[in-house]
Protein: Cytochrome P450
Organism: Hebeloma cylindrosporum
Amino acid sequence: MLTLRATFSPVAHLLPNPTEWGIESHVSTIAIAITTLWLILGSGYVLRTKKDGNVYDLGGIPIVTAWTFFTKRWDFLCGHFANTGGRMFRFRVMQHRVIALTGEQSRKIFFNNHSLDISEGYRILLGGIPNLEDIDISKEFETKRQEEIKRILMLFRSDRVAEILPTLLHDLNQRMLGWKKEGKMDPFNEVYDLVFQMTVRLATCRELAEDKAAVTQLSGHYWNLEKSGTPVSVLLPWFPGSAKKRKGKATMALYRMLGSYVELRRNASTPTIDTIDHLIGQGLSDNVVISTIMAVVFAGVVNTGVNACWLLLHLGANPTWKARAIEEYAALVDKHTDTISTEPLHKRLAAVPISAWENELPSIDLIIRENVRITTPAAALRRNLVKEFMVDDVVIKRGDFLLYSMGGLHMDPNIYPDPSKFDPNRYVAGRAEDRKEALAFVGWGAGRHPCAGMKIATLELKLILALMLLGYEYELVDGSGKSLESLPQPDRNDLHHVRCLHDRSADGMFRLIFVHRRVH
Ligand code: HEM
């Protein structure tokens, strides 16, 4: 008679035979326990973290080891660098090998090596950016990256930005009027909305930017896509789960929506200075126009949103720097506009020339630099697409992925003492902490891929800050309305919003909100 033992499982022969239930079953149970323990200890030994020359191979079952890389990236990097004594380490994301670099020499290679591709790194390891294969027109979208970067730089040339400046300020003012004269707000929602509005104005056309419902709809598709990079969708990209479907749907919805505005502008009788018209005017196909808009939106919204929020938070918690910033803005307005003007603030700010915004706000430049340092996300990603090379005697094969923890660099106490402290004076002559090592500050990228939006993002931040500091009084309070004693740290695992650590207190209320009162 066949029993349960008649299977091909290697542990099946250890299973108790129901007909022999009794003393023998105890023996078998013990045998199972011993085998399981042996398997756990054995696999733990085989899969343990091992040093191989100058690099550590992370142990464990690859999918399990890599899981927190997707769910808690900051903790993943800090934890493994702590365990390896700050040395380079390797792990697997499915079939891919990922090497986490550290140190000055590796950093120089990471940011400068010509074999390393930036798009592939983010496309495969991040997932939450539009994968144009999802809408099956990838070939048409394969425009060369360099051409795209050139187009983006051209879009934000000073003369174009000067023309659009009054409209940007008008948009911000309109949105801020929605906050009422005084009240409370969650900066991580409201300030993000300001940034999204500016991005739409900068990247598309008037018909879209001035239709609030359409901007909200676009923002919904954007966030659906941004958040679709779940561990399952990245680790198992072929798995037809809800994240994959959501991503495909959001990509299609974004593409269709932007496409309808490109068509609208293509059929318009008179061209305007708006971005879509500018791109159409260069003879580009609809798909290239749409991919350029998407590149601007995806490169810009999160980074600029995070920085706009945290600038206001840091200044809210640092009265000395806030007072200095207000003084600098007031001097700018006095110098460039009519001092007895009764025009509303946003109109007076619109009269300040771009060159003054760029060159006459030195303290605010320090404040922004410090803010970018503290909020820089966990890691930059690359893929070696060309030929094998070495980093610190470790072979980087063709196809390998590399990551560099920009956040770790910016929080390194050997470079930036007391790194969590908001201290814009770190950069002034005499201290110059950001020059202690090569590329010690990478908040705007470095080497082969510096941020193509640095100038426009800095201007956006300065505009929001000017309207908030000159137009409002605000303070930071907790959910029960009490002034905050100290500013919580940014949650660097939260790649989308970088909200505060422990954002909600035990009673579910936000730990941090703004109480604001409009004064101008
Ligand atoms: C405060 C806001 C911003 C910050 C802190 C920021 C930061 C960065 C950083 C650190 C990189 C380098 C990433 C890497 O090396 O892997 C980068 C690249 C880039 N950024 Fe920004 N960025 C901001 C806003 C923007 C905006 C508004 C745009 C769009 C106009 C933009 C466009 C780009 C592009 C296109 C690249 C890639 C450049 C290349 O591939 O060569 N960024 N940014």
